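dumping the sequnces here before i forget
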Amino acid sequence: MEVLIILLISFLQIGLFSIGGGYATIPLIQEQVVNLHSWLSIQEFTDIITISQMTPGPLAVNTSTFVGIRIAGILGAVVATFGCVFSGFVISLILYRFFDKYRSAETVLNILKGLKSCSVGLIAASASTILMIAFFGTSTLDVAAFQWNLFAIGIFVTALILLRKLHLNPILVMILSGVAGYFIYA
Amino acid sequence: MKTEKKLSLYCWLFGVNFFISAFTFGGGYVVIPMIRKFFVQKKQLIREEEIMDMSAIAQSSPGAIAINLAVLAGYRVAGFVGAVISCVSAVLPPLIILSLISACYQIVRDNVVISAVLKGMEAGVAALIVDLVVDMCHMIIKDKDCFLTLLMPAAFLASFFFQVNVALIIGICVVLCVLNTWYKKRRKR
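..and the predicted 3d for all of it:
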């Protein structure tokens, strides 16, 4: 029981302080899971990041499930995952209602508009990182370290044409690029 | 009849969020085009501009963007119950998959076929997000507001080239918006 409470508190913190999502949350999760509670070794934690790239779902949720199940079985996984999504659930609903209610106030409306532009920029930044990893096998801007992957560029261009010109379902595009990956890389 | 309609809406919400979540490889942003496809284009439950509001809020709140966005879409369509249903159904696929993987994770990590499929999907994910970014840029530029248009490349540069913390970027953005509103008001007088 005590373990469950510690798990819950720890993942509540991870959920609460991980604004922006994605890889920005890695140091935060590492602090709690590896350094503070020693639930995972650093090697296991790196493995989870790799597995997270290969499986659906947010990194924080994946880690919470993985850690929870190791520490306290299925119940632990559920408790840790609950802790991890709770703050986002509550705060995003509060913000949504707030913006909805005060839409007529000029300042509030302008903040929402600004956040929208800002989030497009942030999404573009994240897209660039994914592109770099897919095309050049690195996320740093070091041209010397680039390993050009022409297959990935081919899949990317084809997928983009399917999406923009033929308006294909995104899930279908994902499945097709997975199939292409199997034939090219396996 | 009415409760029946509600129940079928709940079931649809559960199914669609479960499905979307099971296919969100490569980060939370992939959820945005998926939500748009199903909620805006297929069912017309949410308007196009609302998706951008929701994405901005989901991103500015703590926690995973994918989950937050699912919660907001569920709330918009079916109230608080909808939000809970969407949240649970979005969390279930990673919960189930990671539980299975934790049991045999050595095998998964070293599997050639799995990593080949995922390598292909990586490029597909990139295309999905680029497609989304292009559409979103168009919507912002359409408003012809210089300040809002410039915020996009500014946030991009800060995050991609200078690796500024996302929470800090969002904070600065809010401050700039408040200052901008104040400045506009003063100029009007």
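Chain A touches chain B through 93 residues (CB under 8 Å).
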